[in-house]
Amino acid sequence: MKYLMFVCTDTEPDPDTATHPDVETWVADNDANGRRLDGSVLGPADSATTVRVRGGELLVSDGPFAETKELIVGFDLLECADLDEAIEVARAHPMAYAGRLELRPLVDLPGSA
């Protein structure tokens, strides 16, 4: 099953940085065993563009889509047997300590290949 893992900042990171895993090791390990299919760091929040259509009118605005102190700063696409495995993969990511990780299963839409 595929999961999109949003990598987010957090206003209350774990202060014990000695226990934080190394991100390069996490990427290498999960790439090697096929659990990480893709991933990237995102550009800064102030480079975001939000697109909406309301009443048939295109509305384009600069900046992030939400007014919040927590921001999505990256993502990883995971291939795991189930949610339990995805949680274990996320648990070993450095941002589980310094930020937060949100896991969402990818859903196959009807008619998609």
From TrEMBL:
Pfam families: YCII. Signal peptide: none annotated. InterPro entries: Dimeric_a/b-barrel, YCII. Residues 6-108 form the YCII-related domain. Belongs to the YciI family. This is Uncharacterized conserved protein. The lineage of its organism: Bacteria, Bacillati, Actinomycetota, Actinomycetes, Micromonosporales.
